[in-house]
Amino acid sequence: MKKTIFFLALILLVTSCSDDFLNSYPKARWTSYNYTNTDSIPIDILVEAKLVESYGDLRKFTFQWAGLAMCNYTTPDVEKGSTATDGGVIAEFKAMSYTPSNTQLQDYYSNCYSTIYTTNEAIALANSMSDTVSTKNTLLAEAIFIRSVMYYRLTQAFGGVPYVNQVLQQTENTPARSTRDEMWSYLETDLKWAIPHLKTRLANVASLTQGKATQNAARAVLAKVYMYQQKWTEAFTQTGLIISSGDNNLSTPYSEIWTEANEFGPESVFELNCEYKPELQINSDMGSQFSQIQGIRGVPNMGWGFNAPSQVLMDAYETGDPRKEASVVTNGETLDGRVVKADAASYQYFNKKAYVRTNERSIYGRSAFAQGYWMNIRLIRYSDVLLMHAESACELGNTTEALAKLEMVRERARNGNSAILPKVTTTDIEELRQKIRQERRIELAMEWERFYDLVRWGVAKDVITGFVQNKHELFPIPQTEIDKSNGVLTQNIGY
Amino acid sequence: MKKLFIIILPLMLTCLTLSAQNKLSINGTVTDKATGETLIGVSVKVEGTTLGTITDFNGKYQLTEIPKNSSVAFSFVGMKSVTLKITSGGIFNVSLESEAKGLDEIVVVGYGTARKRDLTGSIVSISGEDLKTSPDYNPVKALQGKVPGLVLTNNGSAGGSPTIRIRGVATINASTNPLFIVDGLFTDNIDFINPTDISSMEVLKDPSSLAIFGVQGANGVIIVTTKRASKGKLTVNYDGYGGLQVLSDRDRLKLTNASDFTMLYNEQLKNIDPTAADWVGDLLGGGTDWQSYIFSPALITNHGITISQSTDNASTVLSLGYFKQDGIVNYNSYQRFNGRWAGDYKVSKNIKVGGNVTLNRWDNDPATASVSNAAKALPTYSPYSPEEDHDVNNIGSYYTPSPNIQKDVANPVAVMEINKGTSESYGYRAVGNIYAEINFLKDFSFKATAYGDLGISMGSDFTPYYDVNNETSISSHKSEKTSFSRSTSEYSKYQVDYILNYNKVIDKHRIGALAGYTARVSESKGFSASTDSLISGSTTIVPEDFWMLSMGSDLKKYNSDWYSSESFASYLGRINYSYDNKYIAVLTFRADGSSKFSPTNRWGYFPSVGLGWIASEENFWKDMTNDIDYLKVKASWGKLGNDKIGNYLWLPSINPKGQQVVAGGVTYYLPTQDYVVDENIHWEVVSGLDAGFESQLFKNRMNVELTYYSKTTNDLLAYVDPPASVGSGYAITNAGSVQNSGVEFIVGWKDKIGGFDYGVSVNGATLKNEVLALGNDNSDLVSTYHRTSVGHSIGAIYGYVQEGIFQTQDEIDNYYPASWTSKPGDIKYKDLNGDEEITDKDRDFIGTTIPTFTYGMSVNVGYSNFDISIDFNGSAGNSIINTKKLPQYAQFNYYTSALNRWHGEGTSNFEPILDNSRGNNFLPSTNLLESASYFRVRSIQLGYNLPKNTLATLGIGKARVYVSAQNPITFKSNSGYTPEIGGSILTGGIDSGGTYPIPSVYTAGISVNF
């Protein structure tokens, strides 16, 4: 019996300490158990952190990979490029055969929203700041600007989408889609509030905060929102404000725009900062694959060769237009002192606007592996603004203003050679309209506008083979989003 | 033998008071009544005393000095015991009869053993002998097709472990792996065991058998018992086999050759752009068959020597083992050395102590060739470059760069050869226990066991400099750095069990009770370091002697370490009761505390109850004349848990300097948290029901078992994925429930015709997996091909249904409009909802990734000294998604099925036109679906037992030679190497052509007993 008691005692002994025994905490890790943030970090820094994350999001692969396919491969001006079968479902954009199951559209859509989520977090934090903090409104305006860019992208591509302007809990369902008009009106309100609180490009350059949103960037997005609605007066006003702001000009020669030296120059209205300087510990997470996607496929091996100029586009340049030379890399041409040799199976032309020059490739410890990771992405350039201004003026019947701004763009393109690109003088509205549209096509070739311009002008069905009217104006809402929403989200017409 | 010992022990103890009077001597021979052969190792015991012996190699025994009028019991596993009353000395020859199969067989259950007759749940027991038909390093593989409800997905790589699911999939994010218990130790795998050391494996499936394992039990439990010495003089066993693994031609991927590829690719180019120029590769005709470069027949061999001895007070086993398997993918190899010692000592009348330790060393060379690469690479170029391109400073120059239309698919031979021998991985593991057991107060025993499991693994990896490019190529297959990394990791686990047992037979009542406490703590930690570049300047080739961290530049070194621990504490109890061998009740209870959850959610309670009725023991039954010799009806219910998720999920990491912000010239560091957290998570709760009967018929020649099971998992640990517009940060939380139910059966027949013994056994299990609820308002969990939805199986495949191929524009014009524009050659999808339009509403659940019926069959025939056994297994009802057909990031080689593509009216009604710009042909649909059903000849073994007379003269007790074929033929219909495709629970069954094939294995072996 004594033994029994002994053993029972042993059991009790062992068990009495078992609650302690079950405490297991990780090592070399801070958790909510062992970490309390003793440094009081000012809220504005917390907001700043969310903004850093949001700006970083703009560099995401999908915005370049799917983004270029959506706005360019769909049009005859741009070939998908690379080899014929490369790029998987990206080929569906060229063939206008994309479906709601297209994974690239899914990525584009959900990446827009993940940035919207972050900006909403930033806004919530900023709103909790005391009104006396001087930077409050600037931070709020930056967050609202980035959110607006994402909603602009979504609305442009998919039509009305769920408008979320607060941080939702994961158990909440998505709001239903707003209409396209409602989206435009949300964006007008948001951007109009943001503009006066943002800094100018010159102020950013002065404070070494290049890459942060500028007043003119917000104005330009607002002008685009107006132009979609054919609110020409309002668009004209906004572009006019940009022009009169003195923050931008056309002093950068066309062929020099896409160089590292001219980053955030006077041409820059909305430009994403990308960096890759291994020697300074700035690694590829600060870079973008924008240049790699489009880089020369062959020798020099600069990338994959997507988003390439089509024969249609090359034929559309006026004789002697130097912008052709500045935009197109041709197999066999001598570039940076080296003969370009396109891969035999690949498309033979490349987009020079994504080409990084030799002198940029060997500095800061860069290696051939990083194919142009440091190249900034120029989303809105000053000439885009001028042409929007000209277009609005033309639609308003103000041919003088339209001709003047058109000429500014052509004059820069002429680069002093008076024998080419004659000044446009027509005052016939329809003729001038076509001239401005053509100029926009050439000036912004292979950039971010062509498909949406064609849709906006209502001419996509005439230009794009396979374009189905009342369907292809919008991309389909990704199928998995509709499936996940429990029937709240509806599909666009025709899909 | 250990089992026998345990039953005999109480008998011995209860009768110790008897004293000796008249002494007699007896001797004789024990034979098998059926065959007349002598039986070796039969236990001969004088009841009520410690006297006893076992029969020798000739079946002979001798007992001296036994009391007059004592009862001598002759017992042998699988035979009915015979008891003789000895009134005078002399010769007593005894012949034993096979007992009604397995009824009094002892099976291992949680924390103890039980007579099979007393079980109320579903436990399948496999003996070590049965495992011998499967030459494999991992004994678990032998269970395939033998245990209804156990679904095994093989892994063909050298030393690869299969994945196991028992009775369906009861979770969506936690692990589905069963718990292994090796001689009492809880573990995740049994890779460290030499199969020849195994005495038995028990698979526990039902909730009442599992509830004693509480939070560990939800996925089923496999108990492994290793061998202890049999009573008798020193014996030495040798078991060994050697053989060859081959990838049979019928299992290879059917890929197009160079001419066919070129023809198809050019057709595709023209389909996309009719003006496209022809593409020309280097080679035409057969071209390069990459599969033949990366696969070759591979050796497999295993040797085991076991030395065992047992006396009255001590028994020991010592065994040594060596296993080596080369992978059928070149340069893949695995080897393992094993040493094991086990001992049991009777220290005094009531105290027994013992222990067991297994030491293990393993080496693994991973395959350097990529199976999927060989499936993707074009047949149009040769692996090796011409000699004039060779450059001694660039090992990449010896190989042809991949063609530009697949610059991201590296030359498979180059990958294989360049990486050959660059990575090393090996380790040690020691697993052991010691115990002490004491019997007291007549009916009580107490056993304390301490376990340890320690492992160390080491790895290193070197990346050479190479560039597989020539002047014109742009292959991305190159490495500009010579990086090197090394890592070591260590884990340790300690467990203690204190078990108090009470056993009593009072009249017709048989009572057993058990109470226990167990605790376990495990830790894993490790260290890794790497350096970016072992070379500087223009040197490109780094000799192997320099593959050391010390070689790298100090500026480019990185190191890290890690640590994780978990602990568990549990109380458990069980009461077994049976009355008159007719009525059985089993009650169990376990309380589990786990460190994986927050202090308020740490403890869980898991009860179970099992009931049984042996109808055939009733008097009325015995009075009836019928063919049913034995019938038991049983039912059980129990509650279990699944906590097999990562550690610390309720406690996410905070990185105090997770983010850096520069504002106003000041740098701030912000803490970031690595995921959003639900601090209240707790384990998944499974409750299950199991009901059925077991019977033996026709003079015990036939056995039939039928079981219905149903288990429901509540509080599934799930990541809830809301629409993108809601947000992307989501936490793991308890949300949802899923049910697995089905029927399992075993039907066997065993008889003898003339000199032929034969047996046939068939088993099978059905499975219905159904989601009952999901978090977030039952919103479906959606991915491209899969959908987990209430009312359907987990990870069901969802999509359109193909009706055919549009042959003409006319046919398209007369068909329902779709939201895309079809052209001739495109897939014609079914209008499932009848709205005369083809839209997303026409999708449906088109397949499941979980087999709905799995089955096995085995046939044994013995004649004279020959025996042959054949095992089959099969699986049906699940599907595979063949994503290799889809457009990819580069052009891949085609399956030959692409030759059946549509290329003009009437050419195909299934495979669409080759054109990767036609998105409507790549929608998730039945076009991509392949059946994963298969039927496999699992193994064939032909054995010959050498005649005893011959052996006796050589001093050999027993010798057996055999030849065996494993997986010689699999009947399947999918395009990939194997129909056994793993994958995650929510998105499984995707075959992109890269699954490591399952080889056919041909071996010859010998088993000798000295």
What's the short story on this structure?
The complex is a heterodimer of chains A (about 500) and B (about 1000). Chain A is mostly helical.
Low-confidence stretches of chain B: 1-21
Spatial order of strands in the largest sheet of chain A: 2-5
Largest interface: A-B, 99 and 100 residues
Distance between the termini of chain B: 18 Å
The backbone outline of chain B, from C-alpha atoms, is: globular
Characteristic terms for this protein:
heterodimer, A: 495 residues, mainly alpha, Serine Threonine Protein Phosphatase 5, Tetratricopeptide repeat, two-stranded antiparallel ribbon, two-stranded antiparallel sheet, 47% helix, 7% strand, globular, B: 1010 residues, mainly beta, 22-stranded antiparallel β-barrel, five-stranded mixed beta sheet, disordered N terminus
Descriptive overview:
The complex is a heterodimer of chains A (495) and B (1010). By secondary structure, chain A is mainly alpha-helical. Among the domains of chain A are: 42-197 and 465-495, Serine Threonine Protein Phosphatase 5, Tetratricopeptide repeat; 284-303 and 318-375, no CATH class. Chain A contains 21 helices and 11 strands. In chain A, strand 7 (334-335) and strand 8 (338-339) form a beta hairpin. Chain A starts with a helix and ends in an 11-residue tail after the last helix. By secondary structure, chain B is mostly beta strands. Chain B contains 11 helices and 55 strands. In chain B, the strands form 12 sheets. Chain B has a 22-stranded antiparallel β-barrel. In chain B, strands 11-16-17-14-15 form a 5-stranded mixed beta sheet. In chain B, strands 1, 4, 7 and 8 form a 4-stranded mixed beta sheet that branches. In chain B, a hairpin with an 8-residue loop joins strand 30 (583-594) and strand 31 (603-614). Chain B is globular, with a radius of gyration of 32 Å. Chain B starts with a helix and ends with a strand. In chain B, 45% of the residues are buried. Residues 1-21 of chain B have low confidence and may be disordered. At the A-B interface, helix 1, helix 2, strand 1, helix 3 and helix 5 of A face helix 4, strand 24, strand 27, strand 28 and strand 29 of B.
